[in-house]
Amino acid sequence: MKTLILGAGGQLGRELQLSCPAGIDMVAATRGELDISRQEAVLAYVADCQPDVIINAAAYTAVDGAESKPDLALEINAEGPGYLALAAARCGARLLHVSTDFVFDGSATEPYDPRSETRPLGAYGHSKLAGECRVREILPTQSLVLRTAWVYSRFGQNFVNTMLRLMAERDRLRVVDDQVGAPTWAAGLAKVLWSLLEHPEASGIYHWTDAGRCSWYAFACEIQARALALGLLDSEIPIEPIPTSEYPTPAERPAFSVLDLGATEALLGRQSTSWQDQLQAMLEDLKAHPDEE
Length: 293
Ligand SMILES: NC(=O)c1ccc[n+]([C@@H]2O[C@H](COP(=O)([O-])OP(=O)(O)OC[C@H]3O[C@@H](n4cnc5c(N)ncnc54)[C@H](OP(=O)(O)O)[C@@H]3O)[C@@H](O)[C@H]2O)c1
Known about the structure:
This protein is of the alpha/beta class. The chain has a domain at 2-157 and 183-211 and 257-272: NAD(P)-binding Rossmann-like Domain (Rossmann fold). The chain is 41% helix and 16% strand. It has 10 helices and 12 strands. The strands form 4 sheets. The chain has a 6-stranded parallel sheet with strand order 2-1-3-4-5-10, with helices on both faces. A two-stranded parallel ribbon has the order 6-9. Strand 1, helix 1 (11-18) and strand 2 (25-29) form a beta-alpha-beta unit. Helix 6 packs across helix 8 (216-230). It binds NADP nicotinamide-adenine-dinucleotide phosphate. NADP nicotinamide-adenine-dinucleotide phosphate (NAP) binds next to helix 1, helix 4 and strand 4.
């Protein structure tokens, strides 16, 4: 099965390449190789590649940056997936598209079901929701949208890598304690995307994160404890829980964005792994690859 990955230079794109199963003929394109916001380029590239499946891990992911560049976010997160869907339709390919918990407003108290009402709080969430809609309109049965949240890996800029850097540099940290979500190791997410190839009948919206929930503060404490135990940090620093009001950002974030995984777990026939176990695995992965970014 020929599979084309877009956004190959990102954290999910890189993990997808590392976990590509045997028997898959994989083509992975970075932004430099294919800019998904250029319609003609997308149509030509996909027509030339003739994939059976396209996995879109490309996105404009700067949540705060999107507030000042909403048009750019829409081009990449909404128009781009639409072009991919059109290109997939032309060659009969299936499209797996990745989306976000930021399509929700965070007012829920129970995990969001894939059918829960969407109401993005910011420009990034709006652009991602628009991308979901484009994909589903153009490819109603041959597409699957997988929403996820709080993604990190040993690659690139993410909460875990940022915390490890700050914990090494500073003598104390203040971390938001009133936003609750589910951290998700990109390597596990990548394996789920590959598993979804075994279910060509599945379409529509699905959710996947690591299991459980926590605040950013609790996540930071767990990162520090586990990094100390692994020798990734030398000494402990105090971490203070703070409310969101004390850490203003350009984009408003959902206060609660835990996703209900039931449908995806039922489809795949397995439960998600706890976020603590996945964090441990990521930190061990990081320790095993000290020179990679
Ligand atoms: N990170 C999170 O916490 C999070 C949470 C929920 C959902 N998601 C979703 O998960 C997916 C993967 O995210 P990630 O964390 O792997 O993001 P990432 O590390 O920022 O990777 C995104 C990749 O997309 C590329 N890209 C940006 N604009 C592009 C364009 N016009 N054409 C082609 N490629 C382009 C980026 O290239 P450059 O770096 O060169 O710009 C980057 O390599 C995205 O759909 C994202 O919305 C992420």
